[in-house]
Amino acid sequence: MNVVxxxxxxxxxxxxxxQSFDPQEMSVGLVVAAIISLMAPGVAGPEPRxxxxxxxxxxxxIYIFYFLYAMVKANIDVALxxxxxxxxxxxxxxxxxxxxxxNAGKLxxxxxxxxxxxxxxxxxxxxxxxxxxxxxKKPDIEGASQEIVRGFxxxxxxxxx
Length: 161
What we know:
The protein has two domains: 2-50, no CATH class; 54-159, no CATH class. 59% of the residues lie in helices and 12% in strands. The protein has helices at 2-18, 23-39, 54-83, 103-115, 141-148, 150-159; strands spanning 92-97, 119-125, 128-133. Helix 3 packs antiparallel against helix 6 and helix 4 packs antiparallel against helix 6 (150-159). The chain starts with a helix and ends with a helix. The model has no long low-confidence stretch (mean pLDDT 87).
């Protein structure tokens, strides 16, 4: 069952990415999805039936807009620091804690953090991420986690539960 659901999820992603309903492309997509699912049966997660829950897709859709908002906000912050050298720059690496349990969720979190200017994910160790931050406002784990991680996490917890 895991392989079947993984194949379906990967095939849907293929169709979305190619935006084509050409029978040849769809056939290739189905074959590629099946091969990947057979080679890596857990590619859709440990319980791929959860991927069929509509709540995940609603949160993923909303997450796109939250991520874009966070990225624009961070771009403006970094641009202002470049334009006005009097604005503080206090770079450092902070340790943040995540509530996410799956590796896919942690990976999505780390990539989201890295894609927002002013932060860069350096390492993941268990439930902790090490983030290079352009302006360390709160060096403690809880404060830094609140500033950097919590906004992304509330969506990623549902998407990757």
